[in-house]
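From the methods appendix. Each design record in this collection lists the tokenized structure first, followed by the designed amino acid sequence. Records were kept in a plain field format so they could be parsed without special tools. The example shown here is representative of the layout used throughout.

RECORD:
FOLD TOKENS (120 positions):
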């Protein structure tokens, strides 16, 4: 089929290809594959607090941020739910049933029986 020259060529490729690959990608890595300003400078990174006062201040800041996000989320959800709740209240007033807030506030059964819970 091929002969000894083909076998010598294949053997040389099997040996030289990985060596050439490692030589190409293994030398001069800093200049060839670096992205400028990839890692942040020390001034740009987060500072981990070690003192007790700093830890408490950071916890308060995180709590305040979480509560602000929660209030913002509830405000946006409240607008959507408020529209739906008003629609349910109007429907329940038309049918003569109680609203869920009235049902939860008072322990009395509504006029519609167990079916009124389905329609609010």
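DESIGN:
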């Amino acid at each position: 089929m091929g002969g000894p020259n083909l076998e010598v060529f294949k053997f040389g490729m099997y040996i030289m290809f990985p060596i050439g690959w490692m030589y190409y990608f293994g030398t001069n890595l800093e200049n060839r594959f670096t992205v400028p300003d990839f890692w942040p400078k020390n001034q740009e990174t987060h500072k981990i607090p070690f003192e007790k006062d700093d830890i408490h201040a950071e916890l308060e800041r995180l709590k305040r941020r979480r509560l602000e996000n929660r209030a913002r989320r509830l405000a946006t959800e409240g607008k959507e739910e408020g529209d739906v709740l008003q629609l349910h209240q109007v429907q329940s007033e038309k049918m003569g049933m109680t609203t869920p807030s009235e049902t939860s506030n008072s322990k009395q059964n509504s006029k519609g029986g167990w079916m009124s819970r389905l329609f609010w």
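APPENDIX NOTE: The two ends are 87 Å apart (CA to CA).
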